[in-house]
Design goal:
There is one protein chain. With 295 residues, the protein is mostly helical. It has 2 domains: 1-165, no CATH class; 168-295. Helices cover 76% and strands 3% of the residues. Strands 1-2 form a two-stranded antiparallel sheet. Helix 1 (8-32) packs antiparallel against helix 2 (44-68) and helix 2 (44-68) runs antiparallel to helix 3. The chain starts with 7 loop residues before the first helix and ends in a 6-residue tail after the last helix.
Length: 295
């Protein structure tokens, strides 16, 4: 008897199109309600809805795929499902953004942008449009794929733990703890200045630290490579994370020495938050424990 097992390609198209329809429909509603030009081409509401719908769709697709395979699912397949769904939905949404900009943005959009932002000159509006056309769609597509990869990895990880609970090795348990700590560091303060907390994502959004982008990619890559049993490459990721953190510490020490020349006695390192320390410790542990189990 032939089983009707859904392919990754069919799941990606089905759920990717569904996500796109929901997101684009919401964006059009917000636009015609005259809320779309207050800052960016898409609103925070759309972004939240996109993240939630994408996560639900990826999890549903993975569960459907696993059921068709009689409970068999590799981490590689889970990551591939999450990434391809996000890629498909991202491509559709990028096409929508470009059509929105070139069809509507050249006339009505720029007019409404100027009305809602009277402090912006016509030159500033044109510069904003040129920058937005290039950077926002590209950045959205990249972040969409990374988000899908992350959701697919998390779902596959829990699926693997569920089916291999009794056969997890010592290194797999340690690696799970290291990966969890690294991911947790993203959502904990990297810097604390009084009551102000700066997270890794805040630094990433500022666009002033390319190292933060590298750290985020390496954290995700470490988790993926670890549970694909690519221990050497996972260790390399840990080494690079450690080097980036040490480079940042060197720059902070250099800034502190410059301040001391002006009789400013401030210990810059006291502003480091829990997230920075956790990432530093987990990167060291990743270098030590990212290795196959001894037989």
């Amino acid at each position: 008897m032939q089983t009707n097992t859904p392919s990754i390609r069919s799941l990606a198209f089905k759920y990717g199109v569904t996500i796109s329809i929901i997101t684009i429909g919401l964006d059009l509603i917000i636009y015609f309600m005259d809320l779309a030009t207050r800052g960016f081409l898409f609103s925070d509401v759309t972004l939240v809805v996109y993240c939630v719908v994408t996560a639900v769709s990826i999890i549903t697709a993975i569960v459907s795929f696993r059921s068709g395979k009689k409970g068999l699912l590799s981490l590689r397949q889970s990551i591939k499902i999450g990434t391809t769904i996000s890629l498909v939905s991202g491509i559709f949404y990028v096409v929508f953004l470009l059509l929105f900009e070139f069809v509507i943005g050249s006339t009505d959009y720029l007019k409404r942008l100027g009305e809602n932002n009277p402090q912006m000159s016509s030159e500033a509006i044109q510069d904003f449009r040129k920058l937005a056309v290039i950077t926002i769609p590209l950045l959205f597509l990249i972040l969409s794929c990374l988000y899908g990869l992350f959701i697919g990895w998390i779902t596959g990880l829990f699926s693997k733990i569920e089916y291999k609970k009794s056969s997890l090795t010592k290194n797999e348990i340690v690696s799970l703890g290291i990966t969890t700590t690294m991911v947790l560091s993203i959502f904990l303060p990297f810097f604390k200045i009084g009551k102000l907390n700066l997270f890794l994502l805040d630094i990433l959004q500022s666009g002033e630290s390319p190292e933060s982008i590298l750290l985020l990619i390496l954290i995700i890559a470490f988790g993926v490579l670890t549970f694909m049993d690519k221990h050497l490459f996972a260790r390399i990721c840990s080494v690079i994370i450690l080097l980036v953190l040490l480079y940042g510490a060197y720059n902070m020490a250099d800034d502190q020495s410059i301040l001391s020349q002006f009789d400013v006695d401030i210990n810059i390192f006291k502003f480091l938050g829990l997230g920075a320390y956790l990432l530093l410790i987990s990167s060291v542990l990743g270098v030590v424990f990212s290795k196959p189990d001894e037989k």
